[in-house]
Amino acid sequence: MISHAPDTGLWLLSTPRTSYALRVDETGAPWHVGWGPRLTLEEAAGLVVPVAAAGNSFEGRPPVGEELPVDGGTRFGPPSLQVRYADGSRGFEWQPAGHRVLRDSPGSAELVLDFRDRLYPLHVALHYRVREDTDVIERRTVLRNAGGQHLRLLRADSAAWSLPALPGYRISHLTGQWAAESRLRREPLPHGETVLTSRRGITGHHAAPWVMLDAGDADEDRGRVWSAALAWSGSWRLTAQRTSDGRAGVTGGVGHEGTWVPLAPGAEFATPLFAGLFSQGGFGAASRAWHAYTRDHVLPHAGETAPVLYNSWEATGFDVDEAGQKALAERAAALGVELYVVDDGWFGSRRSDRAGLGDWTPSRDRFPRGLGPLAETVHGLGMRFGLWVEPEMVNPDSDLYRAHPDWVLHTPGRARSELRNQLVLNFARDDVADWAHDWLTRLVADHGVDFLKWDMNRAFSEAGWPDVPDGDDRLWTGYVANLYGVLDRLRAAHPALRIETCSGGGGRVDLGILARTDQAWTSDNTDAADRLVIQHGFSQLHPARVMSAWVTDVPNQLTGRTVPLRYRFHVAMAGLLGIGGDLARWSEAELAEGAALVAAYKEVRHLVQHGAQYRLSGPDDAGARVVQYAAEDGSEALVLAWRRGPRGDGPPLPVRLRGLTPGARYRDTRTGQVHSAAVLTAYGLAAEPAGGDWSSDATHLVRTGGGGVE
């Protein structure tokens, strides 16, 4: 997987289908050589090495091509590494200090290239990990202050990815806002610098820390696509460049402009992973490769089948008590639910979002015997028991804030801005992190909690930490490090606990948080029609195995739209099925239909959660919106289709299926009709849902013979 030509300094990193080549040039700088289809070391030696020298006195070194562009010398592009030393000077000059090849786990290898600055005691290690079962390459950088004086990392990106010279480039990324997350944008990459960022202290609703680049000719099934994703759950910045010499590149890492990472003598800063992927199979193949990588190497328990969930929020709001929750739990169990989650309102003086946040003990008047009796009832009904928590927040009207007003992010003399009537606890403080871990681990142990919906409902403001030197800068990375630490400790103490990441919906979804949680709340917008757009964008990088999706009541609380129950179920069945409606108001007919749809989902959820996903149409395409899930061995497939209306969707169009066994035959489990794989893949399936406006359908196909299977 890792090979080296010492005479030329060339390194070749090989994955199952791709190769990544780099070399240390004559100046000592690590320089990119190529990234694309798989090559041998001998073949890679024939790659044209980009010219690193300045073309004229105005140009300097090319802004794209260095493995980690640094500040200093004749470099004028956006630096991945920018440092200010104690004497006020800046810059970095590469001096090679050796290399290491680590094989710490079966099927993987890690190359570490060590460097130091030629003048100052700053050491830089570039890490590259490749695996035998994925084309994803993991990169990160470790920086160490080997001197006796403090320094500041003004920019400390994880990695920079370089692309070849092409006639043009297109960038794919997500934009959005609260309740309208994951809007896919696919547009020409302009010349110059395109910055994607979050300054909010969280991953954010407004952008996602990943990009895909292509030459403008890729589609779902074909074309070269380069992509990169940052595993970080705080503020971040990605900068994509298109240069005048026809190249493109992306650098990315933690933080945003105006903040830095203080580095004390002897201290290290290890950046988060910035993983990259090259695919020749278009956006669909790129997405499936990211999905498989996430399931195999990111999620803690991806092999498990996630349960059908019920959440009490829309049924009760803050009006939560033992009797009402028990009644809802009985209805949920009769529907086939396997995990019952009590949402906000179960603790302290919480009667609205104005008070009680931070006082994490069961409300005495609503749960006089604590949560134990409710947990016993839920478990006795054959369901797991879950709770909503928001450990990083506090209401000013709470016992916690009255005792510890210094625990929140704040700037002395400035107002403490409240959003949703709450302030942000400074998780960068070890005492705050320890407090959160202590009450969380007691809560889980004392009340038999199987699942936590971990929410985070506002962005940072007045992001100060006046109690420590450089606190206003330390908190941005320290906050996330301690958040990860609390989650890691909590999971280690309670191995059976499962956690959902939530931040007002999709405000904190990234590979960093997914390494410590089991699923993600995709959006607070549960309108089924809007969700099709959100889920389409979400699926570009993240697998259905993490995508929590609920069936809620109509008219929808956010949009006022009314669509059939069946349609709402089929949309939610494209991910982890959850139910969030007020079951006390469902009619007997609705309860019966819901129970049948829950049972139908259980028959096919192994395909949704563990199979390969194919987007057979986009949210703006004519005809029905269609997504397919196929077993890796081609033995089964599920096709979900939704139609908004005859006029709005255009004429019915067949969809060509993917991932089937050539020569095989497939039986529709509902109708009994047998289809040829040749017809399904070459000519298509009539997936158009029967009916008028807001019709939907689910087709489950099982291989019955042919293709060497009888």
SSE order and pairing:
Blueprint: E1 2-5, E2 10-14, E3 18-24, E4 30-37, H1 41-44, E5 81-84, E6 94-102, E7 108-117, E8 122-131, E9 134-145, E10 151-163, E11 170-177, E12 180-188, E13 192-198, E14 210-214, E15 225-230, E16 236-242, E17 248-254, E18 261-263, E19 268-270, E20 274-279, H2 282-297, E21 309-311, H3 313-316, H4 322-335, E22 339-342, H5 372-380, E23 384-389, E24 393-394, H6 399-403, E25 423-424, H7 430-447, E26 451-454, H8 471-493, E27 498-501, H9 511-514, E28 519-521, H10 528-538, E29 547-551, H11 565-572, E30 576-579, H12 588-610, E31 612-615, E32 625-630, E33 636-643, H13 646-649, E34 664-668, E35 674-676, H14 677-682, E36 695-706
Parallel strand pairs: 21-22, 21-30, 22-23, 23-26, 26-27, 27-28, 28-29, 29-30
Antiparallel strand pairs: 1-2, 2-3, 3-4, 5-10, 6-7, 7-8, 8-9, 9-19, 10-17, 10-18, 11-12, 11-14, 13-16, 14-15, 15-20, 16-17, 24-25, 31-32, 32-33, 33-36, 34-35, 34-36
Helix pairs in contact: 4-5, 7-8, 10-11, 11-12
The percent of residues in helical segments reads 10-25%
> CATH homologous superfamily of the largest domain, by name?
Aldolase class I
Cα radius of gyration in angstroms = 26 Å
What quaternary form is this?
Answer: single chain
Got a strand count? 36
- The neighbouring-strand order within the major sheet is 21-22-23-26-27-28-29-30
Q: Can you tell me the residue ranges where pLDDT is under 50 for at least 5 consecutive residues?
A: none
Number of helices: 14
**Number of domains as seen in the coordinates:** 3
The CATH architecture classification of the largest domain is Alpha-Beta Barrel
Counting helices, strands and paired strands, the structural category is: alpha+beta
Strand content: 25-35%
CATH topology (level 3) name of the largest domain: TIM Barrel
